[in-house]
Design a protein that fits this description.
Blueprint (H helix, E strand, L loop, with lengths): L3 H8 L4 H13 L1 H7 L2 E8 L2 E8 L16 E2 L5 H9 L9 E3 L2 E12 L2 E11 L8 H19 L25
Antiparallel strand pairs: 1-2, 1-6, 2-3, 4-5, 5-6
Helix pairs in contact: 3-5
Amino acid sequence: MSTLSELLAEHTQLSGDAVEHLQRLVAEWQLLADMSFADFLLWIPVGTGFLCVAQARPTTAPTAHAEDMVAARVGAQESKQLRRAVVEGRICRDEDPRWHLEVPVRTETIPVRQAGTVIAVLSRDTNLAMPRVPSPLEISYLGSASDLCQMVADGTFPPRAAVAGADTSPRAGDGLIRL
């Protein structure tokens, strides 16, 4: 299995700073997956389509992708929403849910901005097979996850400097204070 660094080196001309930004994002994104109750896939543009270079599954909800998506490619026809996130530089959530291996999946695409340029796209893929009414805690998690996703689109998350004294990234179950 190829690593993120290997896939980026093989398929992109990204600068060292851009690669570092994507590595920091992947190091921090388990919190996004857990608070979103969704899978996160990191996509890079390749030709007219996209290549998945990293994947995170939520520990708080069923996965939308039982299979390993790293190194999966999608062509131009299947990647319209990914392309729209790159071109428009905004979070896109306007497509209808689609079926993926007998699982209904809602996809939201988030441009990954670094130094003012969109360098990749995150897809937030939610498994809709077991809908339920969210609790107040889940609503808070979803709101916080949406705020962090907007920060990714703005280029302000993850932070460039590591948090002093933090050996690992926080987990959703560690607790949450929303200001």
